[in-house]
């Protein structure tokens, strides 16, 4: 009787998925915290969101702007990363910033 081997998930894809989930959790918690929702503790365990590395403006602000979460974990504004790519600012495919 032949058995099929289940392909093992590589550690790089797992850590990449974990990093993406971590970024989404941080983004969600920071958004809720910025709305002054009392059930979200103001804890050091919730990582602070860094500003957009391209324009240095806050990712979460009153006038909500579209953003993207890159595979490397950076969170830039969508228009900032589009402009950066169009101007040839990409140095490494793994992290365009």
TrEMBL record:
Top-level division of the source organism's lineage: Eukaryota
Q: Which InterPro entries match?
A: Znf_RING, Znf_RING/FYVE/PHD
Q: Name one GO molecular function term.
A: zinc ion binding
Kindly state which keywords UniProt assigns to this record, in alphabetical order: Metal-binding, Zinc, Zinc-finger
* Domain named RING-type: residues: 52-97
What is the recorded name of this protein? 6259_t:CDS:1
- Please report the organism this UniProt entry assigns to the protein: Acaulospora morrowiae
């Amino acid at each position: 009787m032949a058995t099929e081997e289940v392909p093992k998930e590589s550690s790089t894809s797992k850590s990449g998925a974990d990093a993406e989930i971590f970024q989404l959790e941080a983004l969600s918690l920071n958004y809720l915290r910025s709305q002054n929702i009392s059930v979200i503790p103001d804890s050091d365990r919730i990582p602070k969101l860094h500003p957009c590395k391209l324009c240095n403006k806050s990712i979460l602000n009153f006038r909500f702007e579209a953003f993207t979460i890159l595979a490397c974990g950076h969170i830039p504004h969508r228009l900032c990363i589009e402009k950066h790519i169009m101007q040839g600012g990409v140095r490494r495919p793994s992290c365009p910033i």
